[in-house]
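Reminder to self: keep the SMILES exactly as supplied, no canonicalising. Ligand is 8-OXO-2'-deoxyguanosine-5'-triphosphate.
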Amino acid sequence: MTERIVVGAAVLDGERLLAARRSAPEELAGRWELPGGKVEPGETPEAALVRELREELGVDAEVIERVPGAWPLKSPYVLHVWTARLLPGTGEPKPLEDHDELRWLGPGELWDVDWLDQDVPAVREVAARLRS
Ligand SMILES: Nc1nc2c([nH]c(=O)n2[C@H]2C[C@H](O)[C@@H](COP(=O)(O)OP(=O)(O)OP(=O)(O)O)O2)c(=O)[nH]1
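Structure tokens returned for the bound complex:
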């Protein structure tokens, strides 16, 4: 089956990373992830990321760069991650859809939340870039 991309946004504010707690489906609820979602047919991953951040968090954001790596999810999905930043004046993100809590994680707090297993290597990669 053709791979389908799920985009995850590592939204950064200085050295802080935004984490989102899923409210559904049942098997993922309560675990933390990078906000994002499935890329629609004909859409670029970058456009999907901006769209998902608007839908899920009510914010306007811009993509910074791809975090190297691709992490397999439930077939046929594969997680690709980009760093992103909020546009000035857009306000604080809110858990409008798919999430019931958001947290900005500062340095030393990245591992304070229960990330989805498949997100752990992606967050590790983001953490390495935050330190460099
Ligand atoms: N958004 C997001 N999804 C993730 C991550 N890690 C992970 O396993 N997933 C899974 C959860 C879902 O099964 C799938 C993405 O689905 P989603 O529900 O966020 O996608 P979507 O907003 O496009 O919604 P829909 O089409 O299901 O309505 O990928 C992650 O870090 N971010």
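Points to follow up:
Helices lie at 45-57, 120-131.
Residues 45-57 form the longest helix (13 residues).
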